[in-house]
Amino acid sequence: MKYNLLATTDQLGLSQASSELWMNLRAIGDERPRVDRSRIKGLILAYTNLDPREAVRLLRRHMGEEPGRYRAVYRVMPILAWVKTEVDEIVEEVREQAARIGAGDSFRVTLEKRRTQLRSLEVIEPVAEAIDNPVDLRDPDWVVLVEILGNETGVSVIKPVDMLNVQKERHRLSTEREKSPLLDDEAG
Predict the structure, then answer these.
(1) Is 183's pLDDT higher than 80?
(2) Per the domain annotation, does 71 fall within a domain?
(3) Using CA of residue 32, residue 37, residue 39, residue 44, what is the dihedral sign?
């Protein structure tokens, strides 16, 4: 079985984060998720029976409703395809997935490397050159996510909303709460 979600945590919280991710996937409607600790420090591999992008969106919504259930997991990212860790294969998969990017839409390449000797630019440059759209490193319309895990690489061309950064989401939620008026004060 191939995993379609990656999650990060700290090394000490790996067991707690794995359980947390499993329980939260169940809470959003996946009756049989699979969550495994990887051999890579701080990395969790998961399989959801839901579309992985939709699963991340549902996790974000669930976090808004029950933020206390998100303590150990740091980030959750969907993986749409796995390829061998060879630059040509990575670029070919990116080309296929990048067909969804609209004309004029911007993108950013996000690369995370684990257990590889490849240098970042050896991957980022050919991936970026394969897409004929403007690059926007701050606020892209699309993210080209390349997750190298030794001999295998996960590739996802996704919207930024398809990734969950728990700390950023927690900050966003607290900022929204601060901005919203208190209903009790208005009812006065």
Answers:
(1) no
(2) yes
(3) positive
Q: Are 57 and 132 in a shared domain?
A: no
DSSP E strand stretches across 88-151: 107-114, 142-149
Give the integer Cα–Cα distance in Å for 143 and 166: 18
User: How confident is the model over 32-52, as pLDDT tens digits?
Assistant: 999 999 989 999 999 999 999
Range of the domain at 52: 1-78
In a domain, 138, yes or no: yes
Q: Residue 27 has what DSSP assignment?
A: H
CB–CB of 146/111 below 8 Å? yes
Share of the chain above pLDDT 90, in %: 86
Lookup result for tokens 């067909």: 99
86 with 74, same domain? no
pLDDT digits (tens, 9 = 90+) for 40-94: 999 999 999 999 999 999 999 999 999 999 999 999 999 999 999 999 999 999 9
**90 and 157 Cβ atoms separated by less than 8 Å:** no
| Number of domains into which the chain is organized | 2
